[in-house]
Design brief:
259 residues, alpha+beta, Herpes Virus-1, 3-stranded antiparallel β-sheet, elongated, disordered N terminus
Length: 259
């Protein structure tokens, strides 16, 4: 009875031993040389191909020298990337550091980016949210700057005016415009404060502009992101007049028939 119970275990052990013997040696598909199992490259569990560590090391060196950061597995039709942590022990520190720099560059290039314009900072800033940014605060020096024109924040002024030299009074006026939420005419630069009423502003220079976005005046929903879905009061009044007119004529048409 005891021997019968032990036979399945013995068969299993024999199978494991045979499997270990099969895995003890393999032939590298790159150099076509028989290699021991402890020299087999393991790609962090992403894929498993019969490549020796020496060939993978040389392969990484060639790719890095070719300025390639995202290195794919050399396996035929394999789209997995090489795991840098799995390769760290088989390449030199200099080569690994250069590879990491290329990987960082490839990540940075996928985002809209700029450098902080302040000379005492110059930190790299990435737009990871992929929104249309304008005024932002540098995460390093905590100073505000314009992400569009890549210059220190120009409170109260447009980007096309940000490169012009201004004295301290102009800067203070710009900060006041921003604080009071005034809008400057796109044509002459005159500042206008809107207390109430329609956002359709007629400037002293004769042009009409939208007080919410500062652009040319437009009926209906504002196309500029900062305006949201605001409607002009003129359009609302026009719709109210048309509705009243139709209602009045409908009453006149119905009333005679009811007599």
């Amino acid at each position: 009875m005891g021997n019968k119970l032990q036979k399945p275990q013995e068969i299993e052990r024999v199978g494991e031993h045979e499997q270990e013997e099969e895995d003890s040696n393999f032939t590298c598909e790159i150099c076509i040389e028989p290699t021991e199992s402890n020299r087999k490259f393991k790609n962090g569990g992403l894929c498993c191909h019969p490549f020796c560590l020496d060939c993978i090391s040389k392969y990484i060196n060639v790719k890095v020298e070719a300025i390639t950061g995202n290195i794919e597995c050399p396996g035929l039709n394999c789209k997995h990337a090489l795991d840098p942590l799995s390769c760290r022990s088989i390449v030199s520190k200099q080569l690994f550091d250069k590879w990491c720099e290329l990987l960082c560059d490839s990540v940075v290039l996928s985002f809209e980016r700029c450098y902080c314009p302040y000379r005492d900072c110059s930190a790299l800033v990435l737009n990871e949210c992929k929104d249309k940014l304008k005024k932002i605060k540098c995460p390093n020096c905590k100073k505000n700057f314009c992400f569009r024109c890549k210059l220190p924040w120009h409170a109260g002024y447009q980007c096309n005016e940000s490169g012009q030299l201004r004295d301290s009074n102009d800067i203070l006026i710009g900060e006041l415009i921003e604080e009071k939420k005034w809008t400057r005419c796109y044509n002459c630069g005159h500042s206008v404060e809107r207390v109430s009423g329609c956002r359709d502003i007629k400037c002293k220079c004769g042009v009409r502009f939208c007080h919410q976005c500062g652009g040319r005046f437009h009926l209906g929903p504002c196309k500029h992101k900062c305006c949201g879905d605001a409607f002009c009061m003129l359009l609302f009044l026009a719709m109210l007049i048309v509705f009243s007119y139709l209602l009045y004529h409908q009453v006149n048409l119905i009333s005679p028939s009811n007599k």
